[in-house]
Design a protein that fits this description.
Elements: H1 5-16, H2 20-38, E1 46-50, E2 57-66, H3 71-93, H4 98-117, E3 133-135, H5 136-142, E4 151-156, H6 164-192, E5 197-206, E6 209-214, E7 218-222, E8 238-249, E9 252-258, H7 262-272, H8 274-277, E10 281-289, E11 293-300, H9 307-312, H10 317-325, E12 330-335, H11 340-347, E13 355-359, E14 364-369, H12 374-378, H13 383-392, E15 395-400, E16 406-411, E17 422-427, H14 433-487
Parallel strand pairs: 2-3, 7-9, 11-12, 14-15
Antiparallel strand pairs: 1-2, 2-4, 5-6, 5-8, 6-7, 8-9, 10-11, 13-14, 15-16, 16-17
Helix pairs in contact: 2-6, 7-10, 11-13
Length: about 500
């Protein structure tokens, strides 16, 4: 006979993504809790069995058969029972407070621990729980075939009142258990997807944090520190995020996502570039300042494949998709090389490098560049050389070929990547004689150019003043002619 309950349970399981077994376990636990609350006894271990086909519930008192108690153990149990009754009376009369009782128990536990650590072995009595256990001799009065380890199931009578009140209690527990089961399923599902890219829609704003809806199943938090600088997301926008961490809380699973982490760049490259996804091209490192620029080093052992060209794609189609997803962030694709000198040179492209000197002991490199390439090598606010330093793992100092000025790397606290960042500071070193002569020539050229510009500007100014004076002379002539005409 189908009561419709089984169909409803199947529907709940389909909607919530739960297994039917877990739902039935939840229902049985809820019904047992409802019976225990209104009709149960403290010595009963109540378990319920619900039949979804008939809608009938059976309630049992389940106990495990254990070895019979010795006279000493019986005396010990009576003593414990008397102590509990005494403590209960003292609490009711106010002779002792719950805090004092807790302190006394903690002190007793501490003394027991000290005795164990000192090597004193106290004789421990076997603990017997009358709610979940039954002695073998007592079990044999029910059924002679019972032995130690068996379970005795005694059917309990269900009163007529086990209707509305029990159903209400069962309903509350069922709803709570189903919610917990749903949260656990959600947590396990997203915990396995940690480190993946998810697609979601901006649902709302909570202060500076953004709440992302993930396919109406769960919501994730995009903290302000994990957002791309300068990006303006609006409610309803669809965006890709990197699942950074999943934690379980009292309110359910907490999902933290990011768009500023360097891993999202790596995952986007894997999605858009098949050669990276199948392992032909390998990403060797990423240095990123979210919202501004990213440098990524790629490498392949296949001589027939151009790693940079494969990442860019035909007419830049592949890389442009990634750039658009990262709100227009600039991406430099660098070819990785085992030789640190070549790798450092590649990381500073498109600047032209004159010479690179390295010191293996402290992983420091001095890069010499022409004067006209200095600003290009350093980049805006030192960004180019800073990202190159993070990408290669070398401290890069820039030296101007003409003047001998050296730009050294120092720590930069504002960097957003995992490696130790640096900001550029200028320190002058003693220039050589050749450098001094080259500097004089450069200054003379600049002086000549400035003089030529001044002469040209003065000539233009004189021409403008001459034209203005002609206009001023014409105006009085017009006035005189008008006056003569009026006199006539």
């Amino acid at each position: 006979m189908d009561t419709g309950i089984k169909t409803a349970i199947k529907q709940i399981c389909a909607e919530k993504g739960l297994s039917e077994e877990s739902v039935y376990e939840t229902i049985n636990a809820a019904l047992a809790a409802a019976y225990r609350k209104d009709f149960g006894d403290k010595t009963q271990n109540v378990e319920a069995e619900f039949n979804p086909d008939t809608g009938v519930t059976k309630v049992f008192d389940v106990k495990e058969v254990v070895e019979d108690l010795t006279p000493e153990e019986v005396e010990y149990m009576e003593k414990l029972k008397a102590e509990r009754e005494k403590i209960k009376e003292m609490l009711e009369s106010g002779e002792i407070t719950p805090e004092e009782l807790k302190r006394q128990r903690e002190e007793a536990e501490a003394k027991k621990t000290e005795a164990e650590e000192s090597g004193e072995e106290a004789e421990e009595m076997r603990k017997f729980n009358p709610r979940t256990e039954i002695e073998e001799k007592e079990a044999k009065t029910v059924k002679k075939s019972y032995k130690i380890g068996d379970f005795v199931k005694t059917k309990l009578e269900i009163p007529g009142e086990f209707g509305r009140m029990a159903a209400q209690t069962a309903k509350q527990v069922i709803v709570q258990k189903l919610r917990e089961a749903e949260r656990n399923v959600l947590y396990q599902d997203y915990k396995e997807r940690e480190g993946e890219i998810l697609v979601g829609m901006v649902q709302k704003f909570e202060g500076r944090n953004i709440i992302i809806d993930l396919n109406n199943k769960a919501t994730a938090t995009l903290p302000a520190t994990e957002q791309i600088r300068g990006e303006r997301l609006k409610i309803g926008d669809r965006t890709k995020v990197y699942l950074k961490s999943v934690a379980i809380t009292t309110r359910g699973p907490e999902l933290i996502v990011t768009r500023a982490h360097s891993s999202i760049v790596e995952k986007l490259f894997e999605q858009e570039i098949p050669e990276i996804a199948n392992g032909v091209i390998v990403i060797k490192g990423i240095a990123r300042e979210a919202g501004s620029r990213t440098k990524i080093a790629v490498f392949t052992e296949d001589d027939t494949i151009d790693p940079i060209g494969s990442c860019i794609g035909q007419k830049g189609a592949r890389i442009q998709t990634i750039i658009n997803e990262l709100a227009g962030e600039k991406i430099d694709i660098i070819e990785y090389d085992e030789d640190p000198i070549k790798f450092i040179g590649n990381s500073l492209l498109p600047a032209k490098i004159t010479n690179i000197e390295t010191k293996e002991e402290d992983k420091t490199a001095v890069v010499t560049v022409p004067e006209d390439q200095l600003s290009l090598t350093i980049g805006r606010a030192g960004q180019n050389v800073r990202l190159a330093s993070k990408l290669t793992g070398w401290t890069i100092n820039i030296k101007e070929a003409g003047s001998g000025k050296e730009i050294k790397q120092e720590e930069d606290k504002d960097a957003s990547t995992e490696q130790a960042p640096a900001s550029a500071g200028v320190t002058e070193t003693a220039p050589t004689e050749e450098a001094t002569e080259e500097t004089k020539e450069v200054k003379e050229k600049k002086t000549k150019k400035a003089t030529t510009k001044k002469k040209a500007a003065k000539k233009d100014k004189d021409d403008e003043e001459g034209s203005d004076s002609e206009e001023v002379e014409e105006k009085p002539k017009k006035k005189v002619a008008k006056k003569k005409k009026d006199d006539k």
